[in-house]
Design brief:
By secondary structure, this protein is an alpha/beta fold. Helix content is 35%, strand content 16%. The chain is built from four helices and four strands. A four-stranded parallel β-sheet has the order 1-2-3-4. The longest helix is centred in the N-terminal third of the chain and has 12 residues. It is globular, with a radius of gyration of 14 Å. The two termini are 26 Å apart.
Length: 110
């Protein structure tokens, strides 16, 4: 079965507690795969997985060419080392993201 976990955060100050909350959830359900969308979620999942003895496969979806401008460059490089697979929504997105290397694939929209 697929467990979907969503948060309804209305205050930015609460966002940095997300990795702690998420880690507790992941420890409880012990998933084989975690799939994140958008760079903020990618970062939260990667932080939540730090130091776990059993680490699920982390897949993320890259939706647009502007993703790399929203978080600092060092954070993108750090994420690229930890995410198992990045899925780009189209060739333009795949070509624009410089940190995917061989672990990026493309699924065209539509």
């Amino acid at each position: 079965s697929i467990n979907v976990i969503t948060l309804d955060l209305r205050r930015n100050l609460l966002k940095w507690s997300v990795p702690i909350w998420l880690r507790a959830k992941l420890d409880g359900i012990r998933p084989d795969v975690v799939h994140s969308h958008l760079e903020q979620s990618d970062l939260f999942v990667a932080l939540a997985l730090l130091g776990r003895s059993s680490i699920p496969v982390h897949v993320r979806t890259l939706h647009n060419v502007y993703a790399s401008s929203r978080i600092p460059l060092p954070a993108h490089k750090w994420l690229a080392e930890r995410i198992d697979c990045s899925v780009a929504c189209g060739g333009v997105v795949q070509d624009a993201y410089p940190y995917g290397g061989s672990r990026i694939c493309r699924i065209d929209n539509g």
